[in-house]
Amino acid sequence: MYRTDMYEGLLAETVSMTGANGDVINAYLARPLGAGPFPAMVLAHHMPGWDQWYRETALKFAYHGYITISPNLYFRAGHGTPEDVAAKVRADGGIPDDQAVGDLAGAMRYVRDVPYSNKKVGIFGTCSGGRHAYLAACRVPGFDAIIDCWGGRVVMTPDQLTKNFPVPPIDYTKDLSCPILGLFGNDDSSPTPEQVNQHEAELKRHGKTYEFHRYNGAGHGFFYYHAPAYRQAQAVDGWQKVFGFLERYLA
Amino acid sequence: MCTMIVEKVAVNGSGKGVNGWFQLEQASVSYDHPFHAPFEHALNIDFVNESQGLGSRVAVELSAQAARDLVRTILTVLDQAEQGGHLESHR
What we know:
heterodimer; A: alpha/beta; Rossmann fold; B: alpha+beta; four-stranded antiparallel beta sheet
């Protein structure tokens, strides 16, 4: 708990890291100042891109004491404003799941191996980032907690499978290697409440440690304070659950 | 990328972006999360010319109803132009 007579400081900057296929990509790193050791977080950004909300969210996690890295999952699409880059990715039908998982694994290794890390690493994502975070936590050993915020298309129908998305994330559930916190809005259409129920049933079937919270009066993206989707009370409660969960599993 | 509903079409014409007019190469039409319109999903059209960089983009984000109204209006105008003998033969 912060006291008003304490010193505190943060450092935030763009860094280079090794991602999928050994590619060097850029990432936003925010961390508390000091020797640590600190727990760490990987942030999987959402469909609208590696944008200001994700930078500010990296700062929020760092403020709460986490070394936080947000890799640019759209790095290979080229450079420009986050919206122009995300528009190209949207036009191209998204990024390959294998590539996203490789980049997130690289980010996990980056923050785990810095000298001020306590070697515990969680992963957080919203929207497509929630889906990517779930894929990474299932397919890559080494994560200690995952937070999936309204990740769409965890449950997929056969006609939605493509070369980029060959396997529904829910099919990897048996391999999930860490506890999961899921936050969802009951008015969301992706994932629908029925899909959230399916996901929860699969976690239960495989004996995973999970905590799912469903919010009435909220849809997709209820943390997004820059958008009409924002829901103040649900967001405040959701963030409390996020940091409570991380305190249990990353301390 | 929560719906992944997107189609691309080659287009011929000009668009005015942040750096002025440029020649259009392609339009990407998606029904997915918009960047600015106050909807969870919108009918998004990006008129682009990637050979001139990712910033060569003119974007619109429409509600589904507005998009349908726009399509009908475009077709109405083209029909009127055709009936008046005004249509040119550019691809």
